[in-house]
Write a structure and sequence with these properties.
Layout: E1 12-14, H1 23-31, E2 37-43, H2 44-48, H3 52-57, E3 67-72, H4 76-90, E4 94-99, H5 104-107, H6 119-132, E5 137-144, H7 152-162, E6 167-173, H8 184-193, E7 198-201, H9 207-217, E8 221-224, H10 233-243, H11 256-274, H12 276-290, H13 297-306, H14 310-320
Parallel strand pairs: 1-8, 2-3, 3-4, 4-5, 5-6, 6-7, 7-8
Amino acid sequence: MIPMSFNLSGKLVLAPMAGFTDSVFRTICRRFGAGMVFTDLISAKAITYKNKKTLEMMEFREEERPIGIQLYGSDPDVMAEAAIIVAEKFHPNVIDLNFGCPVKKVVSKNEGSALLKDLPLMNKIASRVVNAVDIPVSAKIRSGWDKESEDPVSVVNMLESCGIAFVTIHPRTRAQEYRGLSNWDWIRQVKEKAHIPVIGNGDVLSPQDAVRMFQQTGCDAVMVGRGALGNPWIFKNMGLFQQGSFTEENLTQPDAGEKLSLAMTHLKQCIEKYGECSGIRQMRKHLVYYTHNLPKARELRKHLFEAKTIKDLEDVFHEYK
């Protein structure tokens, strides 16, 4: 099968984040201007087992497009089978292969960033998936397993030869996990050598960070994760960069009222999707970010986390305002 190319039109994309990037949050980020969004990382094995919860995690609305469904696993046959199921059942714009997750329960099964220690197996997985489906396949990697093995340029060259359409690089090693600073120079080196689009990722917490990454690395797009939590305005502000009108004066700085108003909208959409009890539980981790840096945030969170119903939460918001 001929490898598929992919046109990265948006300059800022939403990272896949376990427990956060569900359909509700992805839709909000697209409305604020995210150029592309990704699902949580999804177990290929669970897909082939037709696990109900796993299949539900991959559902999305048309307004979320372009969207990538991210898969992880270590068996080339299982990954290819899962990719076929995903392509036929959900028709995403991209299937993304996770070769970067540093979480112990993933790595212990030789999945995620563990594959950076076994490049022949990574090659086999990428090739099998590319040849199994008729939609673009991308990959997300780290700069290496540890400092001694860092060589993302060679990894990306190998993935490119497999037919990968574009690559995202988070320039921390697996050994670093999320500690220390990411080394953006690796993004620059990968971009200079690659013939496919390169997305930079790591330590982008503000629009200014995103602009610096573009300028320092020459990457085709920037992926933002934690910087978008409680702050989808980051995508709106990056729209100014694309329009050539990015200045500190033009940036949107939401006040407490705007943040809480969006938090309530987000909450209501969660309840609509998951039901009141599950929706409130799902929303609590987002509320931590929406209330970040607000006056008396600790006291506000305490009351929000004690709330059991939508009415309770509305009362807390109203009293706080």
